[in-house]
Amino acid sequence: MRWAAVSALAALILPAPVHAHGLFDAHLLARAPLLLTALLVATAWLLYVVGARKVPPRRHEALCFHSAMLLVVFAVFGPIDDWAESSTSWHMTQHMLFIIVIAPLWALARPLPQWRGVTGRLARPVWTAILRAGRYPTLLALLHGAVIWIWHTPKLYVLALDNLWWHAFEHACFLFTGWLFWWSAFRANPKQVPQALMAVLLTLMHTGLLGALLTFGTTSFYGEGRSVQDQQLAGLIMWVPGGLIYLIGGGWIAWRWLLRMWRRQQARGASEEIS
């Protein structure tokens, strides 16, 4: 996995073949948003690798983080980003990679200790704000839900396709709010578990509603150049695989909660027998 991370970092830095959203082509200035995105991704990855030497992560956490970063490179700089320009279903696939794959992998990776180990006091206000926000899973679910619906309105959807700055900002919104949402749900303490389950259920319901609207729509919401059938496929991608991931996430949270309660009851029963 370490060699995969080095290879992906090199791919972000070295020149790549020319394509519609490529990092390097004849109009380098126009690609500034992609170059900035590549710099941010490479910086976050490098800080984690360096921080892992100071604060060694668990093996499964490191695996989750590097897998997520590889998927970020694929989703943002790979061919899927070009296909998404003309296909609503591929655009939805890209969004769902951000929301239900990369974001929960980041949450499971728990990279804050590694980043904090490198940045020290310099970025302490940022990490403190993130930790405080994690106490409110329902609020973060509402924020993440608002981001999903706002960027799927026709005007902003087309704006993100036509303008690379807005395109990069759209991706950042999905990734950051998705990470916060999943992280707050996964790290919920026993008292917060009902809120976390409510947050996941709420997200399952409103994303399912958006997927159903796209699936059963009889006209193209995002311009005449996009087919209705492709839009309906995009709705199914959000509705079915997305709903399945939220059900799995909610089930995992509930299972951990019940397991904690069972262990506490066992410990309490054992202490009563001893006394």
Automatic annotation (TrEMBL):
The chain crosses the membrane at residues 30-50, 62-80, 92-112, 133-152, 164-184, 196-216, 236-258. Residues 1-20 form the signal peptide. It is a multi-pass membrane protein. Keywords: Cell membrane, Membrane, Signal, Transmembrane, Transmembrane helix. One of its GO terms (cellular component) is plasma membrane. It is found in: Cell membrane. The keyword Cell membrane applies. Its main location: membrane. This is Cytochrome C oxidase assembly protein. It comes from Stutzerimonas stutzeri KOS6.
